[in-house]
């Protein structure tokens, strides 16, 4: 058997210990770190925000929940193709903005090497934030109402309720989402 992957790792470790790795290796590691931190951070923040919004028993929750969850049902390939169409200057968002009179808008979403990582983060967050929202919403709905009532009777403000009671109770979901 030809272990091509093992040879790649062997070359990687040789670069690390014996000589400098190529600049593309540093670029890859940097992009991976940027994507990882932004993707996880934004998914958690957006998912928690959407879950708190839907937990308020707002009107239209039955319509909003499936809308937020729908992107999660798509495969990564479908999401990639959809975002490629959406970001195409002659077809997607830019063309739509030009159609409505904003002709000065022009941005190379995918062609700009400094911005493409953020475009990928946006597409990934769009797909995953609904799942994170569903997990947080389940956690929020599982919190005993008596704890919240007791804190309100003790004079806790809504911000204190979330900061001192809700967020600590959602810690296991933060770890699994």
UniProtKB/TrEMBL annotation:
Any Pfam family hit: BPD_transp_1
Annotated localization: Cell membrane
Topology in membrane: Multi-pass membrane protein
Residue ranges crossing the lipid bilayer per the database entry: 32-55, 67-86, 115-140
Domain ABC transmembrane type-1: 29-177
CDD domains in UniProt: TM_PBP2 (cd06261)
KW Isomerase (keyword) present: no
Keywords carried by this UniProt record: Cell membrane, Membrane, Transmembrane, Transmembrane helix, Transport
UniProt GO cellular component terms: plasma membrane
Keyword Acetylation: no
Any one biological process term the GO annotation gives: transmembrane transport
Recorded family membership: Belongs to the binding-protein-dependent transport system permease family.
Entry protein name: Sugar ABC transporter permease
Source organism: Rhizobium hidalgonense
Taxonomic classification: Bacteria, Pseudomonadati, Pseudomonadota, Alphaproteobacteria, Hyphomicrobiales
């Amino acid at each position: 058997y030809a272990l091509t992957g093992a040879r790649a790792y062997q070359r990687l470790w040789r670069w690390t210990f014996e000589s400098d790795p190529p600049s593309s290796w540093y670029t890859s590691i940097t992009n991976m770190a940027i994507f990882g931190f932004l993707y996880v951070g934004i998914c958690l923040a957006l998912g928690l925000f959407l879950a708190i919004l839907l937990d308020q028993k707002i009107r239209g929750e039955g319509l909003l929940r499936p809308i937020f969850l729908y992107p999660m049902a798509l495969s990564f390939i479908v999401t990639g193709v959809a975002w490629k169409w959406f970001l195409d200057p002659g077809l997607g968002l830019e063309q739509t903005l030009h159609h409505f009179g904003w002709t000065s808008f022009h941005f190379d979403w995918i062609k700009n090497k400094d911005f493409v990582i953020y475009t990928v983060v946006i597409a990934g967050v769009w797909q995953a934030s609904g799942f994170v929202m569903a997990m947080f919403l389940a956690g929020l709905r599982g919190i005993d109402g008596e704890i919240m009532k007791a804190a309100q009777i003790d004079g806790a403000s809504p911000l204190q309720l979330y900061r001192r009671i809700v967020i600590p109770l959602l810690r296991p979901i933060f770890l699994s989402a």
